[in-house]
Write a structure and sequence with these properties.
This protein is α/β, with parallel strands linked by helices. The protein is built from five helices and four strands; from the N terminus they run E-H-E-H-E-H-E-H-H. The protein has helices at residues 13-24, 35-41, 60-68, 87-94, 96-104, and strands at 4-7, 30-33, 50-53, 77-80. The longest helix has 12 residues, at 13-24. The radius of gyration is 15 Å and the shape is elongated.
Amino acid sequence: GTQFCSAYEYSSNRDLTKARERFRDGQKRLLLVTERFMWYRRYLMKGADYVLFYGPPETPEIYEEILCGVRVPSQCNSMCLFTRQDGFALERIVGQERVRRMLASSPNQVFVFR
């Protein structure tokens, strides 16, 4: 199994420090973070090569903050899973025109934005 560490809004400062150090130093390859943690704690999470959003963040600021901490921005990939019910959150991130195309597409479609 994959070894991971986590950060959520109720994590103690001690646990957060350990988790962030282990992830940044490569001791743990996976760091699970909740959106509520990013909203309330506002830590910069450094060291990611790949970011997976299980759903679009409610605000574009959270999206930007998460992607600011990647290891090498030009080589980082991110993916965001979404459903039709995520339309408003997606619109805040990609804009009205793009979200219209995304929601009208066939299932399992992949969108690439640079």
